[in-house]
Sequence to fold (219 residues):
Amino acid sequence: MTAAPRGFTLIEMLVVLAIIAILTAIAVTGQSTFNKTLILTDTAYDVAFSARQAQSYGLSSRTFGTYTNQNYGYGLHFDRVTPSSYTFFADTAKGQTPPSTCPLGTVGTPSAKAGDCRFSASDGTVSTYTFSRGFTISKFCGKSGTAAAVCSTDSSPLTTLDIVFTRPNTSTTISGLVNGTSLRTFTCAQLTLSDQSRQATKTIRISSLGEVSLNQTCP
Fold:
């Protein structure tokens, strides 16, 4: 006689269902983490592209709006108060103390610059970029030589950071305000882009030589 086929017991079915549920949860969580990391990387590339675009505009002497001057610098402005956005601006206005590395040129000659290598409300705004999905610039830093970096997360914080590209100067003007008052000039800027949990991060480095790179830190 042939034995009747034996079915699954309730316990066996529950074990199988539990294993399937665990594997599904692992797959969904892993996919979600992968997607978030991928989007964070893509957003970091967008910030780096903005820097390259500002560099291209500044070095090509691009005009801005209805202004007739063709010698504007272009740059990016970061503010500790608004970590979820940054400003791409045309340096169209003077009025502030320029950083020591700002190429002002000679007044009355074609080399004269319209701005002061710093962002102000009087400058022209090309675009204001706002991050989605809870991403923020969780930290930005400026560094010069072997001196310690000055960051937006310090007890005496770097409250703003401006990165400006100006023709015909091939070097980049990097400056910021410490405690909102003291102007500092740097040779390297470092931006840390984070997700909402601050567990995943991407770093963008911009040097005074015009180098823009991802996942690199200031030396």
Notes: The chain is about 25% helix and 30% strand. The two ends are 81 Å apart (CA to CA). Residues 11-214 form one domain.
